[in-house]
Fold this protein.
Amino acid sequence: MEVQLEHPVDEIKRLQRCINDLVSLLALPAMWSGSKPCDIVHTLLDSLLRMLDLDFVYVSLTNPVAAAPSETVKVAQSQEQLFRPRELCTFLNRWLGNDLQKRYLQERSHIGDEEVSLVSWPLGVQREIGVIVAGSRRADFPRDTEALLLNIAANQALTGLQEARLLSEQKHVADELDQTVAQRTAELAAANEVLRKEVAERRRAEEALVVSGHNLRLIVDSIPGLVALLTPAGEVELVNPQLVEYCGRTLEELRLWGTNDTLHAEDLPRVIELYSQSITTGNPHNFETRLRRFDGEYRWFHVRGVPVRDANGRILCWCSLLTDIDERKRTEDALKRSEAFLVEGQRLSRVGSFSWRVETGQITWSEELYRIFEFDRDVRVTLELIGSRVHPDDIPLLNDMIARAQGTGSDFEYEHRLLMPNHSVRYLHMVGHARRDRLGRLVYVGAVQDVTQRQFSEEALAKARSELAHVARVASLATLTASIAHEVNQPLSGIVTNASTCLRMLTLDPPNVDGARETARRTIRDGNRASDVITRLRALFSKKDSIAERLDLNDATREVIALSLSDLHRNRVILRCELADSPPFVTGDRVQLQQVILNLIRNGSDAMNTVHDRPRELLVRTERDESDRALLIVKDAGIGFDPQSMDKLFQAFYTTKSDGMGIGLSVSRSIIEQHDGRLWATLNDGPGATVSFSIPCATNT
Amino acid sequence: MNSGQEKIASELPLVAVVDDDESVRESLPDLLREFGFATHSFSSAEEFLTSDSLVQTGCLILDVAMPGMTGFDLQRELKLRGHSIPIIFISAQKDEVSRRRAFQQGAVEFLFKPFSDTALLQALNTALRVR
C-alpha cells in the first residue's frame, strides 16, 4: 500500500470523512440485522458507491441462500454507459478465478476498452461467503483509506452476510422446521382427525354397546331363566338377578355351589363329574339337576352351559343358562308312570290298542298288541302282516271286516283266531271305533283282547259238562253195577249157604235127604236168579237206547280231539293226528263211539302221566283197511301194560288206576262189539301201548 | 227137623237172622240148625226189635243194607237199649268202610256174601264164647 500525502486540511477532511464512513460501515451490521442477503448486498454496494469514488462494485456470493443473487453488480451512475452489468459480471467472474486461497487481489486490468483497477476481498477466509470486487479507472485506486474502508466493508459485509446467511440458514432451517412442523402438524392434525373419527365411532359403538348391553341386560333379566357367567376355569363370576332371587343366596355363597346345598346332594356328584369334564374339554354341558329354592325346596332345572370364544377360539368365559323344568319333569314323571300303568294294565288284561288310518293303511299298535301277535316291536304293521297271523279259516272274516270298514266306515266288533308259529291257536276279540280326523279322513281306534283263556275256559266248561254227562253215565253205571253186584251176591250167598247145608245134611247118619233136597231146590232157584241179573246187565248195553246213523269217523274223532285238547295240553301231551284222507263212513251211535274214542285217548294220556324222559306223544289215526273196515288207532308212549294181564284189561272192574272204576275198556269193547266191531290192545315196539278198534264201513246208500 | 230140634229149645243158644233177602232167610236158618243152634228169622230190624225173643237172643246175624232201619241203625239201637247182643254182620257189598265201622261199633265179625259155612261157624263160636 502506498501512502500518499496530500494537503493536510484535505487530508484531515478526507480522514474525517473516512472515519465517518468507518463509523457508518461499523453501524452497518446493526442495520443489516434481520435483513436478507440481497438487501445486505444492495445496501453494501450502495453504501460503497456512495462512500467511495468507484466505478462499480461487485459482489459474488458463494452458495447463495434464500433467493440471494449469486452475483450483484452496481455501477456508479455516471459510468453506466461504460460498464454493462452483464459484461462486468462475466469478466469479473473470470478474473476472480477459482483460487480461493487468495486473500486480496489487486490488479489493473482491461475491461473492454477501459483500463480498470480492480480490488477484491474475500468474504470469508476461503471465500465461503463470497467475494467483493471494487473497480475504478483511477490509477491511484485504491488509496489507503479506500482500501481500509473496503477492507472494513468487506469484513462487515462478511459479518453481515454471515449473519444473514446464518439467519437465513436459521430461517431456512426454521422455515424447514416450520414446514416440517407444519407438515407434521398437518399430519398430526390428519391423524388427529382420523383418531377423532375413530374415537367418535368408538364412542358411538360404545354407546350402542351400552344400549345393546342395556337391552341385553333387559333381555337377560327378563328371560325366564337363571343365567350365570363363569371364568374359563369354571368359577362363578356373575349371576343374574333371577338366579340370586331364586336361590336367595349371595354371589359368594353361589360360588361355593360345589360344596354347599345349592344343588341337591343326590345330584351333586354327577353334576360335578359332568361339569368338570365340560370345563376341561371345552364342550358344552347339558344336565338336569335339582336346585335349592330360597325357601329350601328343591326344583328340577335343566342346565346348559356354552363356552364363549374369541376370534382365536380361546375360551373367554362360560355362559350357563338354568331353566326351571320342575313342572315339566313332574308331568313327565307322571306321564311315564301313567304310561307304565297303561302298559301294565294292558298286559294284565291282555288288551292291546291300535289305530288304523284306512286311506293310507298306516297302523299303530300298543306294546301289548305286539306281544299278542308275537311280533317284534320294530316291525312295521300292515294288513298283510296281520293276515299272516290270522287263522286260515278266519281269513274270509278278516277280509270281510276290512272291506266293510273301508266301505261303510262304521264301528265293528269281531272275534277271530290267530294261528301262532308254534301252531297254537289264540282267540281274539276285537272292537273298532270309527273317527274322522281334522281333515275328515277315516281313522279307526280300537282294542283287541286275547280271550284265549276265556275260550279255553269255555271249552273246558263244555268239556267238563260232557265229561260230567259221561261220568254221570258211568256213575249211574257204577251204581247200577253196585246194585247188580248186590243182587248177584244175594243169590250167590244163598247158593253157597244152601250147598253147605246140603252137604252137612247128607253127612249126617242117617242123611237128611229131605232137607238136602230142599236146599238143592233153593240152590237151583238162586242160580236162576243170578242168571237173570246177568241178563239184565247185558240188556243195559243192548241197542234199545242207541241211535244208529251214518257218520264220518274222522269228524267224530276231530270233535273228541277238540274237546280233549285242553286236557291234553295241560298234561303236556303232544297230540299227533293222522286222519285218513278219504273220510271213513260208518253206521252207528255217534255218542257211544265218541265215548269209546274219548276213553282210548284218556287212557293213552293217563298212561303217560309218569313219563318225564321222553315226549308224551299220543297218536290218533284213522284208516280204511283192506276188508273195508274203518280203523281207529290210539298209540301212546306211556308205561304200557303187562302182557300176561292182557285179558284182565278188558275185564269189568279191572283197573290199574287208583281212582279208576275199571269200566272204560270193558264198556268200550262192549260198545264196539255192539257195532259189529272189535277192540284190542297191543304193546308197542318202543314204549307204550296201542289200543285199536275196527268197525265195518257204512254201505253206500 | 231131626235130632237137633229135639233138644230143649231153651238149652240151645238162640241165633237171630235179620235180612231183607228171602234167600238168606231161607237158607241160613237150616245151616244154623245143622250147626246146632236155635234160630229165628226176621225180614227187618224193626221186626226183630218188636219180637219177644229179643232178650233171649244169644247172637245176631245182621244184614247191613236194608230198607228202612239199616244194620248199623239196629246196632246202635240195641246199644242204646242196653242190649249187648254180639253181632255178626253180613253184606253183599265189598265195602271196607262199613266193615271197619262195624268193628269200631263192637261187631264180632263182618262177612262178605257169599261166605263159607266154616267162616260162619267160627264167627258164631267167637260170638257165643264172648258171651
